[in-house]
Structure formats: structure tokens, C-alpha cells
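Table S2 (text version). Query chain:
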Amino acid sequence: MFDLLLKLIINCLALFITAFVVPGFDLARFSTIIWAALVLGLVNTLIRPILSFFTIPLQLLTLGLFTLIINALMLFLTSRIVPGFSIHSFSSAIIGALVLSITSLILNKVIK
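Corresponding C-alpha cell output:
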């Protein structure tokens, strides 16, 4: 239970930092950050593996860089589900996915 709460806090911090750094990546309130982190975790758990499976040839062809596009799509889907969370363009989603991945990696290494 503690690990799940810790992951939620790390994802909230990573989303907050990403919204602060990336233009076109807006979160309205603090409660929106929590909801977006929860929905993003759910989308990454349920939809991302299916999408990754069907895009294996593209991932192999691009040496894994297509995973960044998949991450951007998951962020874009999350922004459509959560009210108060908006991404203005797909390029903002790609930059946001990159910043979110790096920030989450650093926070996971620092906190754990």
C-alpha cells in the first residue's frame, strides 16, 4: 500500500514539474494533478501494453523511439479524460512525454 502511495506522489510531482516546464501543458488545480496521475497510471496499465504490442514492428524499425509517441498518446488520452488537464498540441504532448519520463526516472532514483 505504501509503494502505491509513493508511486502516486512521484507521478504527481513529475506531472507538476512537466506542467511547469512544458508550454502548452496545463493543469488547472492541485486536485487535477492527482486525478491526472491516477488516470495516467490506469491508462498506462490497461491501454499502453495493448498499443505497444500492436506497434512492435514500428518500435523495432525506430529502435524504440516510437515508444515516445505511445507515451505522448497516453498523455493526450489522459488530457481528454481528466477535466482541467489540457495539452494544446501533439508536439507539446511529445515534449511532455519526454520531460515526464526523465523527471519520473530521476524522482524514482532519488526517492527510492
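Notes on Table S2: Residues 28 and 59 are 34 Å apart (CA to CA). The chain has six helices and two strands.
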